[in-house]
Specification:
Blueprint: E1 3-8, H1 13-24, E2 28-35, H2 36-41, E3 46-59, E4 69-75, E5 78-84, E6 87-95, E7 101-108, E8 112-118, E9 128-129
Antiparallel strand pairs: 1-6, 2-3, 2-8, 3-4, 3-9, 4-5, 6-7, 7-8
Amino acid sequence: MAHLSKEIPRDQWAKYLADISRRVRNERVRVESITMESLSLDTGDQDIARSLPLVEISLEQKGSDTGAVQIIAGHDDDVITHRVLEPERISAELDADSGALECLEIAERGSGKLLIFFERALDVDGPSIRA
């Protein structure tokens, strides 16, 4: 399967993330963190959420977290929230044939990156959360 990578211009982050939240709300996501430490120690990606429904991805536009990207996944009272406090780049990996969003990569200044994978029904093993 061929993929296309598309960097999202900073001035379009808020609208792009709001569009994702609206279009794929409640679809299952897997969220992984790749830190500079995990890269240097070769420990691999750290799971934050696995096969949980997406509640929201947004850009904080007010308050002390202005500019941070917030990801919320889960259901009812069992949700996780993760913030990327200093995002410097957002890029989307799309299926070359359908244009479907497969992964959103959010690079954080000096810290690594967060990967949000949008799962298809065939990829789902069952929900889990790791902090």
